Every structure is written in C-alpha cells, then in structure tokens.
Amino acid sequence: MRLVFAGTPVFAEQALAALQAAGHVIELVLTRPDKPAQRGQKLVSSPVKRWAQEHGIEVFQPRTLKDPQACERLRTVQPDLMVVAAYGLILPQQVLDLPRWGCLNIHASLLPRWRGAAPIQRAVQAGDLQTGITIMQMDAGLDTGDMRLVRTLPIGPEDTGGSVHDRLAELGAQAIVQALNDLAHDALPRQPQPQTGVTYAAKIERADAIIDWIEPAQAIANRVRAFDPAPGCVTVLERAPEQPLKVWRAAPATPPDHLVASGTVLAVSPDALTVACGPAHAPQAVSLLELQRPGGRRMPVRAFLGGFAIQPGDRLCAPPASPLSSSPPSS
C-alpha cells in the first residue's frame, strides 16, 4: 500500500518502522518543524524525521496543512492512505479527503475516553485500570471519527506514564499493521464511537506538574505516576521556596490521627517522607519514596536525605512559579 505517514515523537516512530517492515511503501513522511533544544537552542529534528532520513524517505515539514501549497504537495503523492500518529497539526478536510482510503489515526486510548492531546498521562492520572489503542478513521472533529480497530492494555498500580507509553507504542505499531492488512482484504469494519463516556485529555500544562497537597493521597500518587518521566511532579519546602523538588514515586500512607495542615511532613524515615494531604478537616497521608533536588538525580529517600535535610513539621507547598515545561504530545 502506498502511504503518507504523519507523526512526530517516538510513539509515531515505532509505527512508521513497523509499516515499512510490513512491506508498505512510505512515499512521504510529514513531521513537525525542527525545534530548538533547551540548551544552546540548537535545532533538533523529531524522532520520526531522523528515522525517515536514515531510511531514505522524503520528509515534509509544513508549519500548517491549511496552506494550499502544502495540500498540493500531498496531492502529487496520490497515496492510498495517510496514517497519522501523534503528529501535532490539525488536518483540514481537504487533506482528509485526499487519500483513496482517507486517513487513519493511531490514538492512544479507548475512545471516546480521553480524546485529545495527552491520553496516556490523563488515563494514569485518573487511576484508570485499562487503556488501549484505537485505530480511528479521521474526520474533522477532535478524535471523533469511526473506530476501525481497538486493542486494550491493562494499567498496573506501579505503571507510570512512561511505561504505559512504551507498551502502547508497541501495541499501536502492531495494531496499524493489522488494520492495513484487514483494510486491504475489505475486512476492517467501521463503528461509530459511543455517545456516552466521552472525556477529554487536555494538553499538559506547567500547573499540572505542581502537587496540590489538598488532593487525596491516591490522587497525588496517581499524578506522580502519570507525569513520570515528563514533566515530573514538583513541590518546594515552605522555608526554601527557591529550590524546587521533584517527586518521582509516592503511595498512600496511614492517615494521621489528628488534624494537621496539608503539606506538613508527619514523619521522616530512611524509606519514606510521610506528608499530610487532603482537606485539613479530614487529613490523609502520602509517602514520598523517590525524590530529586535541583541539579541532582532521582534518589530513594535514604540517599536524598543525605544531602537535603527535611524534618517533621516542615511544610511542602507549591513553588512561587513552576520551572517545568509542558510535555510533548503523546498522541
């Protein structure tokens, strides 16, 4: 099958590699324009662009697909199908209509749950027990097209946004190859998405990474899991607000038996910092198990405390301004 492929991050790279390995002809690869890196502002190519160039595939990097010249470039290819995975640009109707069989999207959720930019992180953050891949026939809406193929994936209690991402990338690559095989044999059904159960996976913003100690313990633990490895969850000691601390592992702990302000450090041990959370009138507690200080690396509590003193009675709170950037799109 003659394909145009549109994608940007590693999630998409795996699908692109699988399609070529399955014998499909990738006529053109679309990916986002190169971006300056954080250090030195040197332009860095996307994983999809680097893979395509290594395999001799032409790369096209328009800033928008609404430009008539961009549409004309795609029209000259005359693809059978366009495959889209975490591309990051809106496809106008004229682009959706170009390929013979339209455009298929590899979406990292069980639609209609978690339509939008960050379905993997939002599923983990919400405490979902499963997620999956939906191969969707794209239309002009936000992830509203008909479902063509669905594959499910469990989310375990120790899973992070990173671990779920990696397994979904592999599953998505397998699913799109299967979908194209079924499509070629006229065996890929279309099913409209249910009207119930719709949720939206909003783009991850800087504020999402800040731990709100008024949240319940399980919600804090889920947030920490969801934003590992990016952007990471952040807090500060009230007495040292200029030193943001990242929290990488957390778990609900035994609640205190007395009223205490949220964010108060209840206990310090070699294995955990126990911190009060939840509303002040009904406190809960969460154990922080792995942390990172500025300029340091991720450490278990025992090693972390060797270079950063925290005592019971100290209080954790939101930083004056988050130092973190939002994460890249997942799908």
Calculate the mean pLDDT score and round it: 94
CATH superfamily of the largest domain: Formyl transferase, N-terminal domain
Helix content: 10-25%
- The number of helical runs is 8
Q: What summary fits the major beta sheet?
A: 7 strands, mixed
CATH topology of the largest domain: Rossmann fold
Class by alpha and beta content? alpha/beta
> Element order, helices and strands?
EHEEEHEHEHEEHEEHEHEEEEEEHE
Give the end-to-end Cα distance, rounded to a whole number of Å: 23 Å
Per CATH, which architecture of the largest domain?
3-Layer(aba) Sandwich
Give a nutshell description of this structure.
The protein has 331 residues and is an alpha/beta fold.
What are the main properties of this structure?
2 domains, Rossmann fold, seven-stranded mixed sheet, Methionyl-tRNA Fmet Formyltransferase, Chain A, domain 2, 331 residues, 24% helix, 27% strand, alpha/beta
